[in-house]
Design goal:
- The protein has 6 helices and 4 strands; from the N terminus they run H-E-H-E-H-H-E-H-H-E.
- The N and C termini lie far apart (61 Å).
- A 4-stranded antiparallel sheet has the order 2-1-4-3.
- The relative contact order is 0.16.
- The chain is elongated.
- It is α+β, with helices and mostly antiparallel strands and 171 residues long.
- Helix 5 packs antiparallel against helix 6.
């Protein structure tokens, strides 16, 4: 074997190793949803009720753990039932967010939908979002005023029942 053929083989092994390492690094990255393949609908879901899934025969000791977890705020073994409270097209959603100031906390929160494919709105987001949409409602067209009013109403329900949350997802 010549020195040249050894170098070529070494380079091939190195390039294969680099490729396999880069392939594994690529697969470790979180996948950002491809919004172009998602449906045109944006749905705002609100938690309507929770229940413990008891279709399987759960031992009594395990039930105690589930109920204790519920009491301290963990939701192990709990099924969330969501209902649609607001809906619009993806284009309407994008146009609606244009009313919010660029770079504002509210706009960044809502634009998370385009990055992650969904966002969750918890009680700590209520004031920031309600104030932001209320501040721009007078500038909005009737279509977007209706959307803002519906969203603010959903935020009000979240305020009255802090164990509830709102999930914004595409469908």
């Amino acid at each position: 074997m010549t020195v040249k053929s050894v170098l070529v083989k070494t380079d091939l092994v190195k390039s294969e190793s680099v490729k396999s390492v880069s392939d594994s690094v690529e697969s470790d990255k979180p996948k950002i949803p491809d919004m172009s393949t998602m449906s045109d609908k944006v749905l705002f879901y609100s938690l309507s009720r929770k229940f413990v899934d008891e279709k399987d025969d759960v031992p009594e000791e395990a039930k105690e753990i589930i109920y204790y977890g519920l009491a301290i705020g963990h939701h192990l073994g709990i099924v969330d039932c969501l209902k649609v409270v607001v809906s619009c097209s993806r284009q309407q959603y994008q146009d609606w967010l244009e009313y919010l100031p660029k770079g504002s906390e509210a706009r960044q929160k809502m634009e998370g939908f385009f990055t992650f494919g969904e966002i969750t709105i918890f009680p700590e987001h209520i004031n920031m979002l309600a104030n932001a949409f209320q501040a721009v409602i007078s500038e909005q067209t009737p279509e977007f005023k209706t959307l803002s009013d519906s969203f603010i109403t959903a935020l009000g329900a979240l305020h009255r029942e802090p164990d509830v949350y709102i999930m914004v997802r595409g469908r």
